[in-house]
Amino acid sequence: MSQKQLPQEFYQLMEELQAVDFVLVELTLYLDTHPDDTAAIQQFNDMAYYRHQLVPQIEQYYGPLQQFGNSYSGYPWNWNQSPWPWQI
Amino acid sequence: MWIYEKKLQYPVKVSTCNPMLAKFLIEQYGGADGELAAALRYLNQRYSIPDKVIGLLTDIGTEEFAHLEMIATMVYKLTKDATPEQMKAAGLGAHYANHDNALFYNNAAGVPWTASYIQAKGDPIADLYEDIAAEEKARATYQWLIDMSDDPDLNDGLKFLREREVVHSQRFREAVEILKEEQGKKKFY
């Protein structure tokens, strides 16, 4: 099956998202055991906001990152468009 | 519910086709201390754990599925171009006979995954101590895999996963302290 060719910008943005999500997962687990840390919550919310800005930029090159209505679809339905993460 | 995201938690690269490394790595896919066991253990224990630590078990259990996908990606990339001859030479002849180059939930010795690897005791301290031990055993396994691997690209991903085990263990230790503190609170009426 032919795979969609992705531009260099996609790889940079994906790495940026992986870095942002690393901060978010670390803060999530930390806050699960330190729920009263105001500064960490502030940092979490800032990062969550930044993530929301970043995701549409990636989807513009790659198509939807999530399903069940969390991402918009192009035409034709582009969820199943390759490459999948393990094919990159 | 769970929602899949079409991305890896951390980039996975491998230098060359290397089915022998894949054979060892599968320990973290379908082994006793692997990522599948971890995800299923935590996500099952959370129904009977005190409310204070349900969030932590949910989030770590979910992250384990992201790790499972990283291991799968490593195994896939290490074996996708391997010929039957190469699979056989790497000790994967028995695997090839049953699965071709497909992935399967078994350990490095080929033993299929079983629910008897994991426990839910209904006792919060017993469950969390098992979880801490599971993280430490998984960390040790990642170390032994790194020690055997000569693939620097693969090792980058394995080192990331090893560090995640350290963080999870730390958070579970904090969860134990939170529950002990709760238990120690005397109630007067």
Task: Explain the overall architecture.
- Chain A: This is Spore coat protein JB.
- Chain A: InterPro entries: CotJB_dom, Spore_coat_assembly_CotJB.
- Chain A: Keywords: Capsid protein, Virion.
- Chain A: Pfam families: CotJB (PF12652).
- Chain A: Residues 12-87 form the Protein CotJB domain.
- The complex is a heterodimer of chains A (88) and B (189).
- Chain A is mostly helical and 88 residues long.
- Chain A has one domain.
- Chain A is built from 2 helices and no strands.
- In chain A, helix 1 (8-33) runs antiparallel to helix 2.
- The longest helix of chain A has 26 residues, at 8-33.
- Chain B is elongated, with a radius of gyration of 18 Å.
- Helices cover 63% and strands 0% of the residues of chain B.
- Chain B has helices spanning 19-25, 27-30, 35-45, 54-79, 84-89, 93-99, 124-148, 152-184.
- In chain B, helix 1 (19-25) runs antiparallel to helix 4 (54-79) and helix 4 (54-79) runs antiparallel to helix 8 (152-184).
- Chain B has a single domain (19-184), classed as Ferritin, core subunit, four-helix bundle (Ferritin).
- Chain B is mainly alpha-helical.
- Chain B is built from 8 helices and no strands.
- The relative contact order of chain B is 0.19.
- At the A-B interface, helix 1 of A face helix 4 and helix 8 of B.
